C-alpha cells in the first residue's frame, strides 16, 4: 500500500510542477509582449526545467535537483526515450539560464540589451513543445 500512496503523491507533485510551468509560460509570454526579451527567454528556460522535473517526479523520483536541462533530460532518457526528439530545444533553452540574468555573464553588456524578439519567440515556442511533451505523458491518466 505504501508504494501506491507514494505513486499517488508523486503524481500530485508532478502535476504541481506542470501547473507552475504553465504560470511561467504565461509570464514568459507577458514578458515577450512587453519587450522584456531576456526575461522571456529566462522564463522559457524555467518552463522547460519545470516540465522536465515534472516528468522526473511522475516517474517516481523523490528528489530532483539541478538546473541543467541537458542533465535533466539525460536522466529521463531511459524512461522516456522520445525525449531525444527534444534535445535541440533543450540545448537551446539551456543557454538561457545564466546569460539572461547576470550582467557579468555577457562581456561588456547587460542581458536586457542582448536578447531580441526573435530569440524570445523561439524560446517560447521551444518551451511550449517541451511542455506539451511532458503534459502528454503526465496528464494521460
Structure write-up:
This protein has one domain: Four Helix Bundle (Hemerythrin (Met), subunit A) (Up-down Bundle), CATH 1.20.120.330. Helix 1 (2-33) packs antiparallel against helix 2 and helix 2 packs parallel to helix 6 (117-138). The chain is built from six helices and no strands. The protein is elongated and about 45 Å long. The chain is an all-alpha fold. The mean pLDDT is 94. The protein starts with a helix and ends with a helix.
Characteristic terms for this protein:
single chain, 141 residues, mainly alpha, Four Helix Bundle (Hemerythrin (Met), subunit A), 0% strand, elongated
* Cα shape: elongated
Q: How much helix, percentage-wise, in residues?
A: 55-70%
* CATH topology descriptor: Four Helix Bundle (Hemerythrin (Met), subunit A)
The rounded distance between the terminal residues' Cα atoms is: 19 Å
CA-based gyration radius: 16 Å
Q: Quickly count the helices.
A: 6
Please report the first level of CATH classification, the CATH class: Mainly Alpha
Coarse structural class: mainly alpha
**Major sheet characteristics:** none
SSE pattern: HHHHHH
